[in-house]
Amino acid sequence: MEILAFGVQADERPLIERAFAGHHDVRCVDVFLNQDTAPIAAGHEIVSTSVNAALDRRVLEILSDGGTRMIAQRSTGFNNIDLDVADRLGLTVARVSFYSPYAVAEFAWTLATAVNRRIVRAAGRTRDFDFRLDGLMGRDLRGRTAGVLGTGKIGEAFTRIAHGFGMNLLGWDIAENPACAALGMKYVDKDRLLAESDLVSLHVPLLPATHHLIDAAALRSMKDDAILVNTSRGGLVDTEALVRELRAGRFTGVGLDVYEAEAGLFFLDRSLAGIEDDTLARLVTFPNVLVTSHQAYYTAEAVGQIVDTTVQNVLDYLAGRRSENVLVPRSA
Protein backbone atom coordinates (compact mmCIF):
# COMPACT_ATOMS: atom_id res chain seq x y z
CA MET A 1 0.00 0.00 0.00
CA GLU A 2 1.17 3.54 -0.75
CA ILE A 3 0.52 6.26 1.84
CA LEU A 4 0.41 9.84 0.56
CA ALA A 5 1.99 12.43 2.88
CA PHE A 6 1.10 16.08 2.26
CA GLY A 7 3.08 19.15 3.33
CA VAL A 8 6.36 17.34 3.91
CA GLN A 9 9.35 19.58 4.67
CA ALA A 10 12.73 18.79 3.15
CA ASP A 11 14.24 17.90 6.54
CA GLU A 12 11.22 15.78 7.39
CA ARG A 13 11.16 13.65 4.23
CA PRO A 14 14.04 11.25 5.02
CA LEU A 15 12.62 10.68 8.50
CA ILE A 16 9.21 9.74 7.07
CA GLU A 17 10.64 7.51 4.36
CA ARG A 18 12.92 5.73 6.83
CA ALA A 19 10.11 5.25 9.38
CA PHE A 20 7.75 3.69 6.82
CA ALA A 21 10.48 1.47 5.29
CA GLY A 22 9.63 -2.18 5.77
CA HIS A 23 5.97 -1.38 6.39
CA HIS A 24 4.45 0.45 3.43
CA ASP A 25 5.49 2.68 0.57
CA VAL A 26 5.11 6.38 1.19
CA ARG A 27 4.88 9.19 -1.33
CA CYS A 28 5.90 12.58 0.06
CA VAL A 29 4.74 15.82 -1.54
CA ASP A 30 5.57 19.32 -0.40
CA VAL A 31 2.18 20.83 -1.24
CA PHE A 32 -0.32 21.32 1.54
CA LEU A 33 -3.70 19.65 1.55
CA ASN A 34 -6.54 21.95 0.49
CA GLN A 35 -9.37 21.98 -2.05
CA ASP A 36 -6.97 22.43 -4.95
CA THR A 37 -4.58 19.65 -3.96
CA ALA A 38 -7.02 17.12 -2.47
CA PRO A 39 -7.59 15.36 -5.85
CA ILE A 40 -3.95 14.22 -5.71
CA ALA A 41 -5.02 11.78 -3.01
CA ALA A 42 -7.37 9.84 -5.31
CA GLY A 43 -6.74 6.13 -4.94
CA HIS A 44 -4.91 6.46 -1.61
CA GLU A 45 -6.70 4.83 1.30
CA ILE A 46 -4.44 6.61 3.79
CA VAL A 47 -3.16 10.19 3.70
CA SER A 48 -0.95 11.97 6.20
CA THR A 49 -1.35 15.70 6.70
CA SER A 50 0.51 18.57 8.33
CA VAL A 51 -0.82 21.08 10.84
CA ASN A 52 -1.54 23.68 8.14
CA ALA A 53 -3.74 21.40 6.04
CA ALA A 54 -7.28 22.69 5.49
CA LEU A 55 -9.49 19.71 6.26
CA ASP A 56 -12.87 21.38 5.97
CA ARG A 57 -16.07 19.82 4.70
CA ARG A 58 -15.24 20.17 1.00
CA VAL A 59 -11.73 18.77 1.32
CA LEU A 60 -12.95 15.81 3.35
CA GLU A 61 -15.62 15.09 0.76
CA ILE A 62 -13.05 15.14 -2.04
CA LEU A 63 -10.83 12.75 -0.07
CA SER A 64 -13.73 10.43 0.67
CA ASP A 65 -14.91 10.42 -2.95
CA GLY A 66 -11.36 9.55 -4.02
CA GLY A 67 -11.22 6.50 -1.79
CA THR A 68 -9.44 7.85 1.28
CA ARG A 69 -10.53 6.21 4.51
CA MET A 70 -7.88 7.26 7.01
CA ILE A 71 -6.21 10.61 7.82
CA ALA A 72 -3.05 10.56 9.94
CA GLN A 73 -2.24 14.11 11.01
CA ARG A 74 1.36 14.82 11.97
CA SER A 75 0.59 17.20 14.82
CA THR A 76 -1.03 17.39 18.23
CA GLY A 77 -3.50 20.12 17.31
CA PHE A 78 -6.51 19.24 15.20
CA ASN A 79 -8.46 22.50 15.03
CA ASN A 80 -7.98 22.39 11.23
CA ILE A 81 -10.11 19.25 10.87
CA ASP A 82 -13.92 19.16 10.77
CA LEU A 83 -14.28 16.04 12.90
CA ASP A 84 -18.06 15.94 12.60
CA VAL A 85 -17.87 15.79 8.81
CA ALA A 86 -15.11 13.18 8.99
CA ASP A 87 -17.31 11.05 11.21
CA ARG A 88 -20.28 11.42 8.87
CA LEU A 89 -18.14 10.35 5.92
CA GLY A 90 -16.74 7.36 7.78
CA LEU A 91 -13.18 8.67 7.79
CA THR A 92 -10.82 7.57 10.56
CA VAL A 93 -8.76 10.47 11.93
CA ALA A 94 -5.71 10.15 14.16
CA ARG A 95 -3.20 12.64 15.49
CA VAL A 96 0.02 12.68 17.48
CA SER A 97 -1.15 13.19 21.03
CA PHE A 98 2.33 13.64 22.47
CA TYR A 99 5.86 14.50 21.42
CA SER A 100 8.86 16.19 23.04
CA PRO A 101 7.50 19.10 25.09
CA TYR A 102 11.03 20.46 25.43
CA ALA A 103 11.19 21.43 21.76
CA VAL A 104 8.34 23.93 22.09
CA ALA A 105 9.18 25.07 25.62
CA GLU A 106 12.81 25.76 24.75
CA PHE A 107 11.79 27.66 21.62
CA ALA A 108 9.32 29.75 23.62
CA TRP A 109 12.22 30.76 25.82
CA THR A 110 14.33 31.45 22.73
CA LEU A 111 11.70 33.97 21.62
CA ALA A 112 11.35 35.45 25.10
CA THR A 113 15.06 36.04 25.61
CA ALA A 114 15.56 37.22 22.03
CA VAL A 115 12.99 40.02 22.33
CA ASN A 116 14.08 40.87 25.86
CA ARG A 117 17.73 41.32 24.84
CA ARG A 118 16.99 42.79 21.37
CA ILE A 119 18.94 40.01 19.65
CA VAL A 120 17.47 40.50 16.16
CA ARG A 121 18.21 44.22 16.15
CA ALA A 122 21.70 43.64 17.54
CA ALA A 123 22.51 40.98 14.94
CA GLY A 124 21.31 43.25 12.15
CA ARG A 125 23.53 46.05 13.38
CA THR A 126 26.67 43.97 13.71
CA ARG A 127 26.25 42.67 10.16
CA ASP A 128 26.53 46.33 9.15
CA PHE A 129 29.50 46.77 11.53
CA ASP A 130 27.40 49.02 13.76
CA PHE A 131 28.45 48.12 17.29
CA ARG A 132 26.52 50.73 19.26
CA LEU A 133 24.43 49.63 22.24
CA ASP A 134 21.78 52.35 21.91
CA GLY A 135 18.31 50.82 22.16
CA LEU A 136 19.57 47.35 23.09
CA MET A 137 19.08 47.44 26.85
CA GLY A 138 17.19 44.44 28.20
CA ARG A 139 16.15 43.39 31.70
CA ASP A 140 17.18 40.72 34.16
CA LEU A 141 14.51 38.05 34.35
CA ARG A 142 15.53 36.80 37.77
CA GLY A 143 13.02 37.97 40.36
CA ARG A 144 10.40 38.90 37.79
CA THR A 145 7.13 37.05 37.27
CA ALA A 146 6.40 34.50 34.56
CA GLY A 147 2.74 33.80 33.83
CA VAL A 148 2.04 30.47 32.16
CA LEU A 149 -1.35 30.01 30.53
CA GLY A 150 -1.71 26.24 30.21
CA THR A 151 0.44 24.02 32.42
CA GLY A 152 0.32 20.69 30.63
CA LYS A 153 3.47 18.94 29.43
CA ILE A 154 4.79 21.91 27.44
CA GLY A 155 3.71 24.46 30.04
CA GLU A 156 5.43 22.40 32.72
CA ALA A 157 8.65 22.29 30.70
CA PHE A 158 8.44 26.07 30.22
CA THR A 159 7.83 26.50 33.96
CA ARG A 160 10.91 24.45 34.86
CA ILE A 161 13.05 26.75 32.74
CA ALA A 162 11.44 29.83 34.32
CA HIS A 163 12.21 28.35 37.74
CA GLY A 164 15.82 27.96 36.62
CA PHE A 165 15.90 31.65 35.79
CA GLY A 166 14.80 32.37 39.36
CA MET A 167 11.43 33.82 38.37
CA ASN A 168 8.23 33.99 40.38
CA LEU A 169 5.63 31.66 38.86
CA LEU A 170 1.93 32.22 38.18
CA GLY A 171 -0.20 29.61 36.42
CA TRP A 172 -3.67 29.34 34.91
CA ASP A 173 -5.36 26.14 33.81
CA ILE A 174 -8.52 24.12 34.31
CA ALA A 175 -6.56 21.85 36.66
CA GLU A 176 -3.39 22.42 38.65
CA ASN A 177 -0.24 20.55 37.68
CA PRO A 178 1.35 19.20 40.90
CA ALA A 179 4.82 19.34 39.31
CA CYS A 180 4.40 23.06 38.65
CA ALA A 181 3.00 23.68 42.12
CA ALA A 182 6.03 21.91 43.58
CA LEU A 183 8.22 24.47 41.83
CA GLY A 184 6.38 27.26 43.65
CA MET A 185 3.81 28.11 41.01
CA LYS A 186 0.75 29.88 42.34
CA TYR A 187 -2.44 29.27 40.39
CA VAL A 188 -4.56 32.38 39.91
CA ASP A 189 -7.32 33.57 37.60
CA LYS A 190 -6.41 34.77 34.13
CA ASP A 191 -6.99 38.45 34.88
CA ARG A 192 -4.60 38.46 37.81
CA LEU A 193 -1.98 36.50 35.88
CA LEU A 194 -2.04 38.98 33.01
CA ALA A 195 -1.96 41.99 35.30
CA GLU A 196 0.98 40.80 37.42
CA SER A 197 3.20 38.95 34.94
CA ASP A 198 6.30 40.41 33.32
CA LEU A 199 6.37 37.51 30.87
CA VAL A 200 3.26 35.74 29.58
CA SER A 201 3.58 32.51 27.61
CA LEU A 202 0.69 30.64 26.00
CA HIS A 203 0.52 26.84 26.11
CA VAL A 204 -3.17 26.01 25.74
CA PRO A 205 -4.85 24.27 22.78
CA LEU A 206 -6.99 26.20 20.33
CA LEU A 207 -10.63 25.38 21.04
CA PRO A 208 -13.81 27.43 20.65
CA ALA A 209 -13.45 28.40 24.30
CA THR A 210 -9.85 29.59 23.87
CA HIS A 211 -10.19 31.42 20.56
CA HIS A 212 -8.85 34.96 21.12
CA LEU A 213 -8.06 34.07 24.72
CA ILE A 214 -5.77 37.08 24.51
CA ASP A 215 -8.23 39.62 23.15
CA ALA A 216 -8.24 43.42 23.30
CA ALA A 217 -9.31 43.50 26.94
CA ALA A 218 -6.69 40.94 27.94
CA LEU A 219 -3.96 42.87 26.17
CA ARG A 220 -4.98 46.12 27.85
CA SER A 221 -4.80 44.42 31.25
CA MET A 222 -1.16 43.44 30.76
CA LYS A 223 1.77 45.53 31.94
CA ASP A 224 2.97 48.11 29.43
CA ASP A 225 6.46 46.60 29.54
CA ALA A 226 5.41 42.93 29.53
CA ILE A 227 6.69 40.27 27.15
CA LEU A 228 4.12 38.09 25.34
CA VAL A 229 5.09 34.76 23.76
CA ASN A 230 2.84 32.44 21.74
CA THR A 231 4.16 29.10 20.49
CA SER A 232 0.81 27.28 20.65
CA ARG A 233 -1.80 28.35 18.08
CA GLY A 234 -2.23 31.69 16.37
CA GLY A 235 -5.95 31.89 17.05
CA LEU A 236 -5.29 32.33 20.76
CA VAL A 237 -4.35 35.96 20.12
CA ASP A 238 -6.45 38.67 18.50
CA THR A 239 -3.70 39.89 16.19
CA GLU A 240 -5.43 43.08 15.09
CA ALA A 241 -5.89 44.07 18.72
CA LEU A 242 -2.23 43.24 19.36
CA VAL A 243 -1.15 45.52 16.50
CA ARG A 244 -3.19 48.36 17.99
CA GLU A 245 -1.45 47.95 21.35
CA LEU A 246 1.96 47.81 19.70
CA ARG A 247 1.21 50.99 17.77
CA ALA A 248 0.47 52.62 21.11
CA GLY A 249 4.03 51.79 22.18
CA ARG A 250 3.18 48.98 24.57
CA PHE A 251 5.14 45.82 25.44
CA THR A 252 8.84 45.24 25.82
CA GLY A 253 8.61 42.45 23.29
CA VAL A 254 6.33 39.99 21.53
CA GLY A 255 7.50 36.62 20.25
CA LEU A 256 5.13 34.78 17.93
CA ASP A 257 5.82 31.40 16.34
CA VAL A 258 2.20 31.12 15.20
CA TYR A 259 -0.28 33.44 13.52
CA GLU A 260 -4.04 33.08 13.25
CA ALA A 261 -4.05 33.41 9.45
CA GLU A 262 -0.83 31.47 8.82
CA ALA A 263 -2.37 28.84 6.50
CA GLY A 264 -1.19 29.52 2.97
CA LEU A 265 1.74 31.59 4.27
CA PHE A 266 3.82 29.69 6.79
CA PHE A 267 6.09 26.92 5.48
CA LEU A 268 6.13 28.64 2.06
CA ASP A 269 8.54 31.03 0.32
CA ARG A 270 6.65 34.26 -0.27
CA SER A 271 9.74 36.44 -0.56
CA LEU A 272 9.15 37.23 -4.24
CA ALA A 273 5.35 37.21 -4.35
CA GLY A 274 4.93 39.17 -1.14
CA ILE A 275 1.82 38.87 1.03
CA GLU A 276 -1.57 40.52 0.95
CA ASP A 277 -2.16 40.13 4.68
CA ASP A 278 -1.92 43.71 5.92
CA THR A 279 -2.05 42.68 9.58
CA LEU A 280 0.95 40.37 9.32
CA ALA A 281 2.81 42.88 7.15
CA ARG A 282 2.33 45.53 9.84
CA LEU A 283 3.16 43.15 12.67
CA VAL A 284 6.63 42.25 11.39
CA THR A 285 7.62 45.91 11.09
CA PHE A 286 7.66 46.52 14.86
CA PRO A 287 11.23 46.41 16.19
CA ASN A 288 10.12 44.71 19.41
CA VAL A 289 8.27 41.88 17.61
CA LEU A 290 9.84 38.62 16.47
CA VAL A 291 7.76 36.37 14.21
CA THR A 292 8.90 32.88 13.22
CA SER A 293 7.13 30.41 10.97
CA HIS A 294 5.69 27.75 13.27
CA GLN A 295 9.02 26.08 13.93
CA ALA A 296 8.91 25.58 17.70
CA TYR A 297 8.27 21.85 17.30
CA TYR A 298 10.98 21.48 14.66
CA THR A 299 13.75 19.51 16.35
CA ALA A 300 15.11 16.14 15.30
CA GLU A 301 13.78 14.59 18.49
CA ALA A 302 10.26 16.00 18.24
CA VAL A 303 9.84 15.40 14.51
CA GLY A 304 11.20 11.89 14.93
CA GLN A 305 8.59 11.16 17.59
CA ILE A 306 5.85 12.68 15.43
CA VAL A 307 6.81 10.53 12.46
CA ASP A 308 7.13 7.35 14.52
CA THR A 309 3.71 7.92 16.08
CA THR A 310 2.20 8.61 12.64
CA VAL A 311 3.53 5.29 11.36
CA GLN A 312 2.12 3.52 14.40
CA ASN A 313 -1.26 5.22 13.85
CA VAL A 314 -1.30 3.85 10.29
CA LEU A 315 -0.35 0.35 11.44
CA ASP A 316 -3.02 0.45 14.17
CA TYR A 317 -5.65 1.50 11.63
CA LEU A 318 -4.77 -1.33 9.26
CA ALA A 319 -4.80 -3.84 12.14
CA GLY A 320 -8.13 -2.59 13.44
CA ARG A 321 -6.62 -1.30 16.67
CA ARG A 322 -7.64 1.91 18.40
CA SER A 323 -5.31 4.07 20.49
CA GLU A 324 -5.51 7.35 22.39
CA ASN A 325 -4.42 9.10 19.21
CA VAL A 326 -7.66 8.36 17.38
CA LEU A 327 -10.00 11.33 17.13
CA VAL A 328 -12.59 9.69 14.88
CA PRO A 329 -12.67 5.87 15.09
CA ARG A 330 -12.83 3.48 12.19
CA SER A 331 -16.35 2.72 11.02
CA ALA A 332 -17.57 -0.75 11.83
Automatic annotation (TrEMBL):
Q: CDD domains per the record?
A: LDH_like_2 (cd12183)
Q: What is its EC number?
A: 1.1.1.28
Instruction: Write down the SUPFAM superfamilies for this protein, in alphabetical order.
Output: Formate/glycerate dehydrogenase catalytic domain-like, NAD(P)-binding Rossmann-fold domains
Q: Residues in domain D-isomer specific 2-hydroxyacid dehydrogenase catalytic?
A: 8-327
Q: What class of enzyme is it?
A: oxidoreductase
Q: One Pfam family name from the record?
A: 2-Hacid_dh_C
Q: Which InterPro entries match?
A: D-isomer_2_OHA_DH_cat_dom, D-isomer_DH_CS, D-isomer_DH_CS1, D-isomer_DH_NAD-bd, D-LDH-like, NAD(P)-bd_dom_sf
Keywords carried by this UniProt record: NAD, Oxidoreductase
GO molecular function terms attached to this record: D-lactate dehydrogenase (NAD+) activity
Residue ranges of domain D-isomer specific 2-hydroxyacid dehydrogenase NAD-binding in the record: 111-296
Keyword Oxidoreductase attached: yes
Q: Which family does it belong to?
A: Belongs to the D-isomer specific 2-hydroxyacid dehydrogenase family.
PANTHER family from the entry?
A: 2-HYDROXYACID DEHYDROGENASE HOMOLOG 1-RELATED
Mind telling me what this protein is named? 2-hydroxyacid dehydrogenase
- What species is given as this protein's source? Streptomyces roseoviridis
Phylogenetic lineage: Bacteria, Bacillati, Actinomycetota, Actinomycetes, Kitasatosporales
